[in-house]
Amino acid sequence: MTTYAKVFPRTAPLHTDFAREFVSRRVGLAVTTHLYQRLPAYKRGPRKGLVKGEVHWRKCESGGWYADPDDFGRRGVIYKGASPIKVILDGVGTLLDESALTCTTDADRIKWINEVVGNQKETER
Predict the structure, then answer these.
(1) Mean pLDDT throughout 1-10?
(2) CA distances from 34 to 6, 87, 92 (A)
(3) pLDDT value at residue 49
(4) When comparing pLDDT for 69 and 98, which is higher?
(5) Count of domains forming the chain
(6) Fewer Cβ atoms within 10 A, N terminus or C terminus of the chain?
(7) What are the CA-CA distances from residue 75 to residues 48, 100, 101 (Å)?
(8) Is 21 a domain residue?
């Protein structure tokens, strides 16, 4: 009999301290700082000056077989505590995901962010 993993989606707005610390733990401080510098900010309202966007992750409460219905790319056994992440910006799409985390150095991850944000800005013109 197959034991299926219990995986729950979680999300947090990037302007919160929790989200910044969470992303920083996953990708490193240099990459997080660069990412936050490249993101747009709210221009009016109660969040004026704060960064737009969200971080999405899946938290595994109990391990087992898991086939991800979305595009996180997980299929197979997932262990308790595992949490693939995505940083998503409305209108731009995914800025940082597990494929960027496979980059070996911070410079490669920063290059990844520049390519994604740069390509989106070119298509907006």
Answers:
(1) 83
(2) 34, 13, 17
(3) 93
(4) 69
(5) 1
(6) N
(7) 40, 18, 18
(8) yes
Burial 35-71 (b: 16+ CB within 10 A, else e): bbebbeeeeeeeeeeebbbbbbbbebeebeebeeeee
Q: Model pTM?
A: 0.69
- Cα–Cα distance between 87 and 80 in angstroms, integer? 22
- Is residue 20 within 8 A of residue 32, CB to CB? The reply is yes
Cα distance between residue 56 and residue 66, in whole Å: 18
pLDDT of res. 31: 79
Q: Does residue 65 form part of some domain?
A: no
Domain holding 21, by residue range, is 12-56+85-124
Q: What are phi and psi of 73, to 5 degrees?
A: 85, 15
Would 18 be classed as within a structural domain?
yes
72 assigned to some structural domain: no
Cβ(114)–Cβ(92) below 8 Å:
no
Q: What is the pLDDT of residue 104?
A: 59
Instruction: Single out the residue of 116, 112, 101, 110 nearest to residue 30, CA to CA.
Output: 110
